[in-house]
Amino acid sequence: MRKLRVAMAFLASLSAIARPSTTHACAPAMPKDQPPLRIRGEEALIVWDEAHKEEHFVRKAIFDTSVKSFGFLVPTPTRPKLAEASPAVFDALANLTKPEVVEEARWSVLPSLLFLSMRSKSETVAASAPAEAVRVLEETRVAGMDATVLAATDADALGRWLGERGFEFRPALRDWLKPYVDAGYTLTAFRYERPDVAGPGAIAVPIAPTAVRLSFKSERPFYPYREPSDAAAVPGRTLSLFLVGPRRLDGALGAGAAPWISASTRFADAVAAAPLAATLAGVTLPDKPWVTQIVDETSLRAREDVFFGPGDARVRPPPFVIYKDGSSSCPWSSSFRPSSSSSGASASGAVRWYRPRHETPRHPFPALRRPHHLRLPRLL
User: What is the CB-side half-sphere exposure of residue 265 using CA atoms within 13 A?
Assistant: First the structure.
């Protein structure tokens, strides 16, 4: 029998470390006569500055839609500072959290935020909101989008304000906004315009606005997870959330800290700070940062936001094993016998088999390899 050597590592291993590539909007709010707004890919990052009680929230998404303009609201406990963020930070995070690749000898063969549609300018809206009920704290343009930071004391007044400016507003959205308004949260309204689209009949094409960062004061890390009550289940969507802080961060739902049972922690450990610092200009990182990666694949989210607290256990994904002296875990039949001329091929690579250069010949009778003292019967 010859020694086995893998000439090429399986390319299929790349698929296991790839970040989720398909997801949908958290709570689509498109009118029935408008084409859907979907997100081809979405990732989020929370950097928690524990010393200064400050959160940096970064979000990147690729939209697939044919609408001319759309918008979304982001609630934050306090007024945020807006800035454009480098999407390269997610590449750095993927590299830091990918499974370790190890080599092993073996001699066996084993058989994805609330999105709002925009009204047409011809639609009528209710009377203007009282000036004191809705205050504009800032109007700016960031990451290719128009952004308006708002403070409101009345959810209905805020709804009228949004309606006057082209945002769709409905009762379920009012109910979604009310807890934030009552708690004194700030809301940032983002609007993305597509000058290349003349109307809603255009063909859907991917749009990739640059990642945007919201930095704000908070007593604890916060992720806007809630959806309106009329949100429909979206099978197959994935939320990939990274958290960076001085230690592991675990999420819980709402003020009652209910278990976030639909989420799983895929990575939690200390990492090198340099790769993150190079892609997070203007953000203070811990000297020895921990990265926590949480993945949520539920089709219908809980009606609570997620708050995070300290954890301690390390979590790392299982390593990818390259079998240098044995087989990989290909689902071959047990009748397969590797030889010098046989080769295994799959969609992800090829494997060639070789005999070992040095091997002790097998004894035809293994039980007799060691000397035995035979006792002969006595002759009477």
Answer: 20
Give, in order, the Cα–Cα distances in Å from 37 to each of 33, 118, 199: 12, 11, 14
pLDDT at 100: 83
Please count the structural domains in the chain: 1
Q: Would residue 202 count as lying in a domain?
A: yes
Q: Write down the mean pLDDT value for the chain.
A: 73
152 and 133 in contact (C-beta within 8 Å)?
Answer: yes
| 116 part of a folded domain | yes
Over the stretch 212-263, which tens digit does the pLDDT of each residue have?
A: 999 999 999 999 999 888 877 877 778 899 999 999 999 999 988 899 999 9
- The helix, strand and coil proportions of the chain, stated in percent and rounded to the nearest 5, come to 10, 35, 55
Contact by Cβ (8 Å): 359, 3? yes
What's the CA gap between 13 and 6, in Å, rounded?
14
Distances (CA, A) of 145 to 71, 152, 185, 208, 324: 9, 22, 22, 11, 51
Tell me whether residue 368 is in a domain: no
CA–chain centroid gap for 284, Å, is 22
Distance (Å, whole) CA 173 – CA 71: 13
Q: Which of 264, 207, 209, 269 is nearest to 238 (CA)?
A: 264
Using the CB atoms, write b or e for 327-366: b if 16+ within 10 Å: bbeeebeeeeebeeeeebeeeebebbbeeeeeeeeeeeee
Domain of residue 224, residue span: 13-320
For residue 242, is it within any domain?
yes
